[in-house]
Write a structure and sequence with these properties.
The complex is a heterodimer. Chain A is built from 15 helices and two strands. Chain A has a two-stranded antiparallel sheet with strand order 1-2. Chain A is globular, with a radius of gyration of 23 Å. Chain B is an all-alpha fold. Classes of the chains: A mainly alpha, B mainly alpha.
Chain lengths: 461, 57
């Protein structure tokens, strides 16, 4: 009998070990697959911004996107990941209540040198840090792409790359440390809930862009002497609309990466949770993302009938609901997204009347709508526990308002100051003659359309 | 740098970091070189870009 029990116990232990390994490999594969999905966001931004540029600037706009992607990755490896783990409790760099934050903890897991290098490279005992880092790196690169569209056709390339490094390596990461991390002071103290990063990615990046736009100024010809604005249409609307659709595809990966897979030592429990440890699942995302995409498109269609704004409306729909995609009822998500789609064009008009030339409406889509999304959750989810555990702070409008103000301050402040410094040293805006000639002619050793865009006749029978 | 495990040069029973330079100062040196590459690339890019703009002033 004892032998049989021992044999049974050994079999159970072996099955448990296999189950754990399978779960670990699933978690690893889950986050790994979010990375190429999020790279689709960058394919989308590339197409979107090249299409939204005039033909004379098409390639230089694309070069900007490619370089932002390339430089944000090492920036996030060398210091951005450390910022996320070091800053949750604020500038004191002290450890938070969960013991997974502060300068000491960050230095033990997130630096590419010393003992922590073991977690920053291939390690048979660590199957998760690499894919976590990869997913966060793509969040970082996304912020740079959000800023990128607003500044096309007149920003210097290297100046832009420096701004992308600051935004992707520090600004949004600081916001994520404060508003996403379980030890984040806005989470533990104010009950901030921003599941899908409407504020800490979208709004921070957009207000960073606004800070840059203030120093960068409008494109030549955008505004008349009396202050009225001219339309400077991009050279390829189908390319732009397709790019926007690719961005939306990629955001499924982005939001998928906002979940925490269950069953691991670092998980919050046995099942999926949000990054705050609160319950949700992929089903919640499927319901609410689809309904918010639909609501955003319809809202923008009602207001504009314009395919550019309709596709931007899809993005605005997702961003409107991003903070609460984990808990919204799908019909409510549809209504909020519809409102986001409706307010899109008028909000962009207000910005334009203030003399801001946001070439693709990034400040409106990601900034205005991002803040709307953070605040909307404060209205509808008030009273929900913001994080896991007894005594967790609850969601409130005031908490969401505090979060919104902080996100705006981080984005606008760092964007304005860094771009002002670049302006002072002559690295922000291209010379007037170069802008008029077209940036492809000035600095890109390739042609977008070497044969033009000929209209070919159909083949005869 | 060599194989980071002193176990007779076999993958058998290897557990932990397996990258080149594990447990030594090399990861830090690689990181430093990587950072320098980024900075130099940006500096060279800025120089080239400024030269292009100087022809369009």
């Amino acid at each position: 009998m004892e032998e049989q029990l021992a044999e049974l116990a050994a079999k159970v232990a072996a099955m448990e070990a296999k189950g754990n390994l399978t779960n670990t490999m699933f978690a690893e594969a889950y986050y790994y697959l979010t990375i190429p999905l999020m790279i689709i966001i960058h394919a989308g931004f590339l197409a979107y911004e090249m299409g939204a540029s005039r033909a004379k600037n098409a390639l230089s706009s694309g070069v900007k996107n490619i370089l932002a992607f390339a430089f944000v990755i090492p920036a996030f490896y060398f210091f951005g990941w450390w910022v996320y783990w070091a800053f949750p409790t604020g500038f004191s760099l002290s450890a938070g209540p969960n013991g997974i934050s502060g300068a000491e903890y960050a230095a033990s897991i997130a630096l590419a040198w010393g003992e922590s290098a073991a977690y920053m490279g291939p390690n048979t005992e660590d199957q998760i840090d690499g894919v976590f880092w990869g997913a966060f790196t793509l969040f970082a690169a996304t912020t740079a792409s959000i800023m990128s569209g607003a500044v096309i056709e007149r920003i210097q390339t290297v100046g832009f790359v420096i701004l992308a490094i600051i935004l992707g390596g520090f600004s949004w990461t600081l916001a994520a440390a404060w508003g996403w991390h379980a030890d984040g002071w806005m989470v533990t103290g104010w009950g901030l809930h921003d599941f899908g990063a409407a504020g800490l990615v979208h709004a921070v990046a957009a207000f960073f862009a606004l800070g840059v736009l203030i120093n960068l100024g409008p494109r030549i010809g955008k505004f008349n002497p009396d202050g009225t604005a001219n339309d400077l249409p991009g050279h390829n609307m189908p390319f732009t609309a397709t790019g926007l659709m690719l961005i939306i595809v990629g955001f499924w990966g982005f939001l998928m990466a906002c979940l925490v897979v269950g069953g691991e030592a670092w998980s919050w429990g046995a099942n999926y949770t949000t990054i705050y440890g609160t319950p949700t699942n992929l089903g919640a995302l499927a319901f609410n993302i689809l309904m918010s995409v639909a609501g955003g498109i319809i809202g923008a269609w009602v207001m504009t009938r314009d395919p550019f704004w309709m596709m931007s409306g899809a993005l605005a729909g997702i961003i409107s609901c991003a903070s609460g995609l984990d808990i919204y009822y799908p019909a409510l998500a549809f209504i909020i997204a519809f409102a986001g789609g409706v307010m899109l064009k008028p909000a962009a008009g207000i910005l334009e009347r203030m003399g801001i030339d946001d070439a693709v409406g990034a400040v409106t889509v990601h900034g205005t709508i991002g803040i709307f999304g953070v605040l909307a959750l404060g209205v509808f989810a008030s009273g929900y526990p913001a994080a896991l555990g007894d005594g967790a702070a609850t969601v409130s409008f005031m908490g969401q308002l505090v979060g919104s103000v902080v996100f705006i301050a981080i984005g606008l402040g760092t964007g304005y100051v860094s771009s002002l410094i670049l302006k002072m040293v002559g690295m922000l805006r291209v010379p007037e003659a170069a802008e008029i000639a077209g940036l492809d002619t000035v600095k890109v050793p390739a042609q977008a359309y070497p044969e033009g865009i000929p209209a070919s006749a159909p083949a005869s029978n | 740098m060599g194989f980071p495990y002193d176990n007779g040069g076999t993958w058998t029973d290897v557990s932990g970091p397996i990258f080149m330079g594990a447990g030594s100062a090399m990861p830090g040196i690689f990181a430093l070189i990587g950072i320098i590459i980024c900075i130099v690339a940006l500096a060279m890019g800025q120089k080239a870009e400024a030269a292009k703009y100087s022809k369009h002033k």
